[in-house]
Every structure is written in C-alpha cells, then in structure tokens.
Amino acid sequence: AGGGAPLAALSGPVDLEPARRAVAGVRLVAATDVDNPLLGEHGASAVFGPQKGAGPEQVRRLDAALAAFADATDPGSLRDAPGAGAAGGLGYGLLLLGGTVESGVARVLAAVDLDSQAAAADLVITGEGSFDSQSLRGKLPHGVARAAAEHGVPCLVLAGRVAVDRREAAAAGVTESYALVDSAGSVEAALARPSEELRALAADVARRWGR
What we know:
- The structure is a single chain.
- By secondary structure, the protein is α/β, with parallel strands linked by helices.
- The chain has helices at residues 17-22, 44-48, 56-73, 90-96, 105-111, 114-119, 140-150, 166-171, 180-184, 187-192, 194-209; strands at 29-32, 100-103, 124-131, 155-162, 176-179.
- The model has no long low-confidence stretch (mean pLDDT 91).
- GO terms for molecular function: glycerate kinase activity.
C-alpha cells in the first residue's frame, strides 16, 4: 500500500482543533481538476491508484487505509464531498481544515495566458499521468486541447499510459497521444526509469513533428 499504509493503523477520534487554530484566518483553497470523493468505486484509490501502477489488492488496501483515516478524523460526510479524493485525498485534508475545493483548470489556464500562447504557437504539447476518459472530463489536458483547437493548432498529449481511442481524443481537440509504457516497453520499465524514458519519448515525438 506504499505511503498510505500507516493510515490503516489510525484510531479516532483525532483532535483537529490545534491544526485548525494554526490556519485560522488563512483561506485554504484546493484547486483541482477532479470531482472524485475520497472513498469507494469513484474514490481516490480506485480511480487514481491504477493510474500510478497499483494493482487490485493495493487499491483495496489503500482504500481501507483512507477509510480508517476518514473514520478517525470526521464522522460526517466530508469524505463524500466532490474533490475530496483529489491528489490522493489531499482535497479531503483541506476540507477537514475548513478549506474549499474549486476547479483548478480555469485558474491555471488564465495564469499562464494559454489562449494567447496557443494562438501564437505552431504546436502545443501537454501531459498526463494516465490519459483516459477522466482526462476529457474537464481535466487540464482537455482545457489545453480545447484552447489549441480554437486556434487550429495541433495538440499532442504525452502520458504515462493512453486509454482513450483516437476518435474520442480527436473530438476533444487532441491530435495525437503517446504513451510512456508503450515506448518503454512495459509499465515496469516506465516506472523504473521514468525520467530517462520520458526524455526518450519526448525526443522521438520531437523528431516526428520537427520534420
């Protein structure tokens, strides 16, 4: 279960008042591109665990660990709040401290003035851990692809894995998508040397599109 394993040993209730006092007067905002709850079929472990290479048993253990954490910290419904499962449960942590969860895509695109940059570009490249159907539900690659498409600029996605067919990707504005696990040869190879494999994939894509 990796870093989430110690959470399974938590027993509550956990007193959060010292932490809440420490951030009193601070506006905490989780800018996220997902609306997943903390637990269950659509929760952090089930949805994002496989994207990071977790198998079924690891997913089960991670979800159980997060459930123990939720039971120890909040008897209410914060665990079910949209975005609670963002970043492996970080959204839930901020909600516990009185924070809010907001869509982060618009914030990021505005901050980098992507519309103007896409208009002046010949090619737009974005990335994703797992380029799948959820990527096209308001996540950052979808926002980037839409901005590129509005200006008729090709958009490429470099991802750890690709689980979207070309027709679905094209409808979202993505010209081509490339998977690290394909170029590396396996999930194990990609996880063992992620930096090296990503550089090799990027170089290969640059050669293809630089002709």
